[in-house]
Write a structure and sequence with these properties.
The chain contains 1 helix and 8 strands. Strands 1-2-3-4-5-6-7-8 form an 8-stranded antiparallel β-barrel.
Amino acid sequence: MKKLVFFLLILWLIPLFTFSQSNLRMSAGFGYPSGIHFSSIYHEKAYQFEFVFGLPAIAHEMDRGYYWGLNMGVRFGKEENKAQVKPWIIRLGPSFYEVEDQWEVERRSILMATLGREFNFTSRLGCELMIGPIITMSEKTTVKEEKPSSWFGNVLDDELPIAEARAMIFYRF
């Protein structure tokens, strides 16, 4: 797990040192299923590439896990904000998350398409809100030990994320 986190951290920081700084945006936020996350976005004209890494929101109290995703995006709309960029964004890409508790380990690959809107406070600082559907590509659950049954019969155990929603604060370099 430590090697994976180190690898993903390096992958997240590479754009900071290799791409033109004026085309790089770093952000932090909260979403579902991405949870508390950090992302780096490299953009060139109307196109953008995003790497997201976070702690999944679907984790329960005793769980631990991680979330990461790679998204490609296209900007559109009239340039009406302080940063002189098109404010609307459509993103599409695969994501992966893993959560683990004392009873099981769940791994899921998902494909998501989101529509987002950027709001700029200054030419460099702003926030983005996005929402879109999720398609589960693969799912694997490894049972470590049998779960105790609750009064409600574990009704919430089979919850599946059907939509992604994120709110992010970003800084454009």
